[in-house]
Amino acid sequence: MSAIDPEIPDDGHRSRQRQLAGDLRALILSGDIGPDQRLPSTAELTRRYAVNNQTVTRALALLKAEGLVTGHKGKSVVSTRRRPAVVRASHYPTPVAPGDPLPWLGATGRDAVVRLLGVGETAAPAQVARTFGLPAGEPVVFRHQVLVLDGEPAELVWTYYPAEIARGTALAGDRRLRGGSPTVLAALGHPLRHAVDQVSVRPATVAEFIALQLPGDIPVLRQFRTAYTDRERPIEVTVMIKAGQQFEIRYELPAGD
């Protein structure tokens, strides 16, 4: 931004502080404002957005809550080195040796920990029942976990299995799965062959907002993953609710013929 930059119009829907925060967030995440680089001055931002100092302060507070900027009153505000963890859409966990860390956690570049929140049986949610080809309300085994990145909750995970497959196995136990679910399923005679993701973005529910400790009106990224075994049988369904400010999804696409 410079003195000759034009003023930014009002989009007519969001508050001006959210519009300003959105523009600055985009510049930071794209690298146009790099780590440790100063943000435009308050005077410049008030001029370009036709707002007062208080609106700028509130916009910067939103970015501070997300960990993207740091600064103190009366001093310049700079971009931090914090960036979303990059997750490959083409990646699906493979079996690992018992006791070894799950490799995708290290790939996030963050201090990652998975905590098991609950295990049991429940009536299959509608989308899960349709995927497994089960009658509505049929019981399924579920595992509920939270992924914590750098000490902050980042993703809520629910994984479902047909009860006839998982009942009485390690999948229904209240301990971490040795080698991950692919290892357990393979041992049960159901090797995972491929998986399909459906990805969407939506506002958080009240429970998600609280559990993920979202900093303001941040959307969540929802992944609905179906993993298949032999003969294209769906054997595992995973619902992942990711904090929007914590992740980017990377797609690796083969060249077409």
From TrEMBL:
<dbReference type="Pfam" id="PF00392">
    <property type="entry name" value="GntR"/>
</dbReference>
<keyword id="KW-0804">Transcription</keyword>
<protein>
    <submittedName>
        <fullName>GntR family transcriptional regulator</fullName>
    </submittedName>
</protein>
<dbReference type="Pfam" id="PF07702">
    <property type="entry name" value="UTRA"/>
</dbReference>
<keyword id="KW-0805">Transcription regulation</keyword>
<dbReference type="InterPro" id="IPR036388">
    <property type="entry name" value="WH-like_DNA-bd_sf"/>
</dbReference>
<dbReference type="InterPro" id="IPR050679">
    <property type="entry name" value="Bact_HTH_transcr_reg"/>
</dbReference>
<dbReference type="InterPro" id="IPR036390">
    <property type="entry name" value="WH_DNA-bd_sf"/>
</dbReference>
<dbReference type="InterPro" id="IPR000524">
    <property type="entry name" value="Tscrpt_reg_HTH_GntR"/>
</dbReference>
<feature type="domain" description="HTH gntR-type">
    <location>
        <begin position="14"/>
        <end position="82"/>
    </location>
</feature>
<dbReference type="InterPro" id="IPR028978">
    <property type="entry name" value="Chorismate_lyase_/UTRA_dom_sf"/>
</dbReference>
<dbReference type="InterPro" id="IPR011663">
    <property type="entry name" value="UTRA"/>
</dbReference>
<keyword id="KW-0238">DNA-binding</keyword>
